[in-house]
Amino acid sequence: MKRIIMLMSVIAGMLTVNAQKDIPVTDQRNGQLWADTEGRHINAHGGNIIRFGDTYYWYGENRPYRGFTTEAGIQVYSSKDLRTWKDEGVALAVSNEAGSDIERGCIMERPKVVYNEKTHKFVMLFHLELKGKGYAAARVAFAQSDTPVGPFLFIRSTRVNAGIWPFDMDQAARQAAMQTDASRWKEWWTPAWRKEVEKGMYLWRDFKDGQMSRDMTVYIDDDGKAYHITSSQENLTLLVSELTDDYLDFTGKYNMVAPGGQNEAPTIFKNDGVYWLICSGCTGWSPNEARMFSAKSIWGPWKQHKSPFVGLATGYRDMPADKTFGAQGTYVLPIGKRFVFMADIWNPRHLSQSLHLWLPIEFDASGTPKICWADHWYESLHLN
C-alpha cells in the first residue's frame, strides 16, 4: 500500500509539472500560476527584484512541493522586460556539511539581494532557522557574490544588535525594560502582559545574545545607506537597523517600530520624501489585513494608517481587501516613478505552488498609497 501511495504521489507531481507547460509565459495573471521560459511555475517566494544593467533579477525561496524546510536554496531568475523570466538556477545552495548553518533541512526565508556600489558586490541577507530547531534560532544570514546569479558565498548568520540598546531609548526607558521578566509570563495577550511587552520585556530578555530576526527586508536609501528591517521579539516588534557600508554587518544603530504591534512581512518604499511601510499581521499561512505606517525619516516617528488595500480580488475567489486579497507582502518594486507591491498567495500544502501577486500602488489626493485588485499588474503601468 505504501508503494502504491508513493507511486500516486509521484504521478500527481508529474501531472502538476506537465500541466504547467500550458501556462502562457508572459501572461502573469494574478491568482494563477506564473511560468518561466521553460513553462515551469516560478519558484521564487518571499524575495525581491533588482535591476543591474539592462536585466532584472528575481530572487526568492525555492520551496519544496511537500514540506517546509529548505532542500535546494535561494533561486534566481532573469528578465529583460519583467514578464519573461529565465530560470538561472540556485543562487545560494544549501550545504551538505553536517552542522553548517545552512545545512540541507534548515529554513531559508525572505531573501533580499542588493548591489553595493562601493564594493561592487552583490549582497544577500535572509532569515535563517537552523536545521531541526524549528523557528527558535531567528537569525539573519549574510552571503555575497561577484555576479547577480551567483554562486553566492555564505558568510555567517547571527542574532541582531547583541548587547546594544536602541539609540533613541533613554535611560529611564532602559531601566524600565531591565525590570521586566519574560519568564514570569505563562499567559500571553493579557493587558498586564502587553504593558510589559511595550516596556521592552523581550528586548531585555534577548539583550545579551541578540535580538530575534524573522520576516525581513533590506532598504537602500537615496544616499546609499542600507537598513535591515525585521520582525523581532517573538514577531511582536519591528526593528530598523543600520547596516555597515559593505552591507555585511550592523553599525549598532537601531530602533523599534510599533512595539507589541505584532507586525511581520515588512515591505518599504519612499515616495515624495515620505517612507511607507506595509506589513502583515501574524496569522501563520492564513491571510490577514495589511498594516501601513508612514514617516518622514527612516527612524520615525511612524504613524499608522488604515490598510491600503481596497475592494475585492475579482476573479480570484473574490478575496476581500481585509484579507490583502489572500496574500502576504514580500517587496515593493520601483519601476521608474511607479511602484509595484509584490506578494505571495501561500499554499501551505504545496509551497512551491504558492501564487505570485503583483499590484500597482496608486496614490490618492493626499498622497496616501492605495492598492486595488488588477488581473494584470502591468496594464496600468502601460507595459503591455
Task: Explain the overall architecture.
The protein is mostly beta strands and 384 residues long. The protein folds into three domains: 47-158, Tachylectin-2, Chain A (5 Propeller), CATH 2.115.10; 165-257, no CATH class; 263-384, Glycosyl hydrolase domain, family 43 (Tachylectin-2, Chain A, 5 Propeller), CATH 2.115.10.20. The protein contains four helices and 24 strands. The protein has helices at residues 2-20, 171-178, 191-199, 201-205, and strands at 45-52, 55-61, 73-79, 86-93, 107-116, 121-129, 139-145, 153-158, 216-220, 226-232, 237-243, 250-257, 264-271, 274-280, 291-295, 303-305, 309-310, 312-313, 319-320, 328-335, 338-345, 355-360, 362-363, 369-372. The strands form seven sheets. The protein has a four-stranded antiparallel beta sheet, with no helix packed on it. Strand 15 and strand 16 form a beta hairpin.
